[in-house]
Amino acid sequence: LIRNAVLDLDGYVPVEPVEAVAERIGKPVDEIIRLHMNENPYGTSMRVQEVLASFDHYQEYPDADQRVARERIAAYTGAPSQRIIIGNGSDELIDLLLLATIDPGDEVIVPTPTFGVYESRTPLFGGVVRRVPRTADFDLDIDAITQAVTERTKLIFVTAPNNPTGNMPTTQQIVRLLRTGALIVADEAYYEFSGKTFLPLAREFDNLVILRTFSKWAGLAGMRLGYAILPDALAAELWKVKQPFNVSTAGLKAIEAVLDDIDYLQQTVNRIKIERGRLYRGLRKLNFLQPYPSQGNFILCRVTRGDAHDIHRRLERRGILVRKYSDPDLRNYLRITVGRPEHTDALMAALRGMAGEI
Ligand code: PMP
């Protein structure tokens, strides 16, 4: 009864639920320091919370057209609202892009290492993933990517800045990819932390998709809100395949409220950027981790002495969660989300405390 593409999935969930970890280590969930999911440690704004609490029409279906929220995003981004689609997290938009573009056997290029969802979802839609490894310092290998393009290539995913490596592609690199004619999906999930966007290229190229999210900078990961800025023709097709009520009324209201309160959220983004510098300098002083400069709200570290999974376990026992990887490319790396100053202090104390033992 079940499709082979589904049977072939390993069902592996990369991050264990915090509730399960808390139970295992015997700590209340609230005391766990969450540096493993690139969330905003300051939460969202009071304004969002007030709007959600006082809204009294939850008995009605949401606006399938997402009109008001899309207009607010248009004002925020400068992109025309008819080219914007809001998704249930940007994860859903990745699915919709695959659903709208992939015929069985079509190819999707994924420069690795990167965010795992592009690779895990593509086969479900009948697509074939072509992994193209990044260079030793995690730069895009543009020659290798352009050589991997065939007449079956539909999409090339480029994460900007890249998760988990933290680096940005250059405009020149993106332009070279756009010239291949494939649809280039620039995933700008961490845009607010980098301040750099490839959106201006959409004026010149009609094969560029920009993905953004409210999960990171806006502190709304739990609401599941992302958006895509699409070429006109593709936007029209995505509207056809999107579930009419994919985004809840609460989600649409939250977007309006967030974009009414940008100053507050920009302050939390600034705090996180300052803390990113402090965390990076602290990590550099350790003699068993090598941090990579990052334009996101996280820092990738190569474990130069000891074992990443062992360090992960030792931190977890102290109630500090960071991201570990089973992917062989990243087996000895850890990704650490930038938290509040007190989170950095607790993390650094724990890491310094284990320096003699590993
Ligand atoms: N793209 C990238 C690069 C990400 O890191 C993430 C979240 N980890 C997402 C997309 C998904 O974000 P959302 O919560 O909007 O689904």
Automatic annotation (TrEMBL):
InterPro entries listed in its UniProt record: Aminotransferase_I/II_large, HisP_aminotrans, PyrdxlP-dep_Trfase, PyrdxlP-dep_Trfase_major, PyrdxlP-dep_Trfase_small
Domain of life: Bacteria
Keywords: Amino-acid biosynthesis, Aminotransferase, Histidine biosynthesis, Pyridoxal phosphate, Transferase
GO molecular function: histidinol-phosphate transaminase activity; pyridoxal phosphate binding
Keyword Amino-acid biosynthesis: yes
Top EC category: transferase
Pathway: Amino-acid biosynthesis; L-histidine biosynthesis; L-histidine from 5-phospho-alpha-D-ribose 1-diphosphate: step 7/9
Catalytic activity, as annotated: L-histidinol phosphate + 2-oxoglutarate = 3-(imidazol-4-yl)-2-oxopropyl phosphate + L-glutamate
Keyword Disulfide bond: no
Stretches of the chain forming a coiled coil according to its record: none
Pfam families found in the cross-reference section: Aminotran_1_2
SUPFAM superfamilies given in the database record: PLP-dependent transferases (SSF53383)
GO annotation, biological process: L-histidine biosynthetic process
Name of the protein described by the UniProt record: Histidinol-phosphate aminotransferase
Organism, as annotated: Sphaerobacter thermophilus (strain ATCC 49802 / DSM 20745 / KCCM 41009 / NCIMB 13125 / S 6022)
Lineage, highest ranks first: Bacteria, Pseudomonadati, Thermomicrobiota, Thermomicrobia, Sphaerobacterales
Gene from which the chain derives: hisC
